TrEMBL record:
SMART domains for this protein: BLUF
Pfam family of the protein (one): BLUF
Protein name stated in the entry: BLUF domain-containing protein
Organism superkingdom: Bacteria
Every BLUF domain range: 32-125
Signal peptide: none
Source species taxonomy: Bacteria, Pseudomonadati, Pseudomonadota, Alphaproteobacteria, Sphingomonadales
Organism: Sphingobium tyrosinilyticum
């Protein structure tokens, strides 16, 4: 393990709003990277629920195939997403999201190497639009935009908390 070349294989459940069959995830402890971003939605209000559902369905499959886990939050106005996986997979997804016409004003809140997965059992944690928490999330997003690194960790923890609550 000290060389970073030792590999461990873990079997973990994945989530798609309900548990799905087990998948194999292989990674070295030194290979994990994260990307937390926020963006402004360019989705059409009249079709937003269907469009977000399509994004989630495509992302679950793609993230699973890339060995990426994470969470997506949509407030109706903004997206916030936390992704974790290999540096190559995160770079591929980041490039795709930056080109995606659903987003504008994409801002990186936190990125780089990270020691542990926060969303071990989720290829993409998403439980649907939550109008109830939208004001709290908007406040956290505005704080994160201001550049306060403590607030970016608070946003990541909020996403992790939503994922944990979604398990039950």
């Amino acid at each position: 393990m000290a060389t970073g070349k030792a590999r461990r294989t873990f079997t973990v459940p994945t989530m798609r709003l309900a548990f799905t069959p087990f998948v194999q995830l292989s990674y070295s402890a030194n290979m994990l990277e994260r990307w937390l971003y926020i963006s402004t939605s360019r989705l059409q209000a009249a079709q937003v629920d269907d469009q977000v559902r399509d994004i989630v369905n495509i992302s679950i499959s793609r993230n699973r195939s890339l060995g990426v886990t994470g969470a997506l939050l949509f407030t109706g106005q903004r997206f916030s997403q936390y992704l974790e996986g290999s540096p190559v997979a995160i770079a591929e997804l980041k490039e795709s999201i930056l080109r995606d016409s659903c987003h504008e004003d994409v801002r990186t809140i936190a990125s780089g190497p990270y020691d542990v997965r926060r969303f071990l059992t989720w290829s993409l944690a998403y439980a649907g639009p939550s109008r109830f928490v939208a004001s709290k999330v908007e406040e956290a997003l505005k704080d994160a935009i201001s550049g306060n690194r403590d607030n970016s960790e608070s946003l990541a923890e909020m996403l992790a908390g939503f994922a944990v609550e979604g398990h039950g």
